[in-house]
Design goal:
By secondary structure, the chain is of the alpha/beta class. The protein is 37% helix and 15% strand. The strands form two sheets. Strands 3-4-2-5-6-1-7 form a seven-stranded parallel sheet, with helices on both faces. The protein has a seven-stranded parallel sheet with strand order 8-14-13-12-9-11-10.
Amino acid sequence: MNIAKAGYSKLTPVQKYSIPIILAGRDLMACAQTGSGKTAAFLLPIVAHMMRNGVTASSFKEQQEPECIIVAPTRELINQIFLEARKFVYGTCIRPVVIYGGTQTGHSIRQVMQGCNILCATPGRLLDIIGREKIGLCNVKYLVLDEADRMLDMGFGLDMKQLISYPSMPPKDKRQTLMFSATFPDEVQRLAGEFLKTDYLFIVVGHVGGACSDVQKPKLVVYGWWFPPPREQLLSVNHDLLTCIFNNTADFLRYPFNHCYLCRDREQREREVALQDFRSGKFPVLVATSVAARGLDIENVQHVINFDLPSTIEEYVHRIGRTGRCGNTGKAVSFFDNSSDGHLAQSLVKAQQEVPVWLEETAFGFQGERVFRSVNTQKVSLEMYSKSWLSELFLSIEVCLAVYLQSTATETVSSVTVSLILALHLQSAQYF
C-alpha cells in the first residue's frame, strides 16, 4: 500500500535484480546509472525483512540500538533517503531517524532517543553520537553505504573503517552489508572486500562508471579562448526550466538572472532553503559545487551545465545525472579546456555513448575519418565545449554545419547552437 502511495508502479532493472538478492540475505555491491531507483532497491527489502521479523525500538531506552544503519556522504542526500524511508514505513511501528552535521547535536540526540529502527546518518555525526553512547551497534543487521565509492575513498574511508571496527558492531559475517553507487572504480571494489562477505554479489546495470544511457552527444560546438567568456553563453539557456550549474569553487556564484546557490560554506538552514526554492521553481537556476552532485533527485531538472569539469570522471557521471532521471529527458552541457581537463579525455570517451571526434583525437592522439552521427533529440543531449586550440575553430564550423544540415523539420536546432554557429563564422572572419 505504501509503495503505491509513494508513486511506484513497476520495478526498474536495478530494483528487479537487487531486491531478491537482499531478501535472500546476501551481501551486495550494486552499480547502476543515476536516477535508476537505487534508494528503493535497498529500502524496500530491508523494510520487508523488518516487518517480518519484528522490531524492538523503544523511547524508554537510554541507548538506542537500530537494526539498520544507512550512511551517505552529504546532508542533502541522507535527508532524501530518510524521507523515502518514512514513506515506506508509514503506518507501521518502524521508526526512521535522520542525523547529520550542521544541526545542533542535542537535537540529533533527542530524535534518536525517541526510538530508532532505521538510522540515516552522515559519517561525522554518526560517529559523534556513537561516541556519546546514545547509539549501540550490537543489534545492527543491515549496514548500507549509499554512494559507496565516495564512502570508501580518502574522504570517508577512515570513518567507515572506524565504524566497522567498534567492538559492538557485528562482524561482516553476522550482518548484511549493501553498497550502491553509479560508479565503482577498481580501487574501491578492492576496498569493499573489508566490508563484505567473501561470497558477496556484484551486479551492474549498464557498465561500471558509464554515463546515464540517456546522455548522448547529438550536437557539437567547440569553444575556444578567442570567444567571449562562457558565462555569456549561459544567458542563452531557458531559465524558465530548472537548471543546475556546477562550479569547482564557490567564487563563481553570481549570475544576472534569478538563482540560488549551494556549497559547503553555507549554513545548513541556508542550504535547505536553497534546495526548497529550487525544487519549487521559485529560483529556476541552482548554482552549486559538487556538494549537489550525488544522489539528489529533483523533478523536472532540464539542464545541467558543467562550467568547470570536475577532477574525476566519477564526479562527472554523477553531476550530469541530476537530469535525465527515471526515463525523463534533459540536457547536459560541459565546458572542456584541454589545459586543465585533458586528463579526463580518455575517461570521457569511455564513459559516454557518443563523443565528438576532437575529443577522441585529444584522448588518443589519432586523426581519422570524421563520421557525423545522426541527431537524436529524443535523448538527453550533451554538448562539449572545448576552450583550447585555434585549429579547432575550423573543425567546429564543419561539425556545426553538419548538425544543422542533418536536422529535420521536427528536430529543431537549439538557439544556443545556432548562435554559436554564427559566432564561429564571425570569429573566423576576424582572423583572415
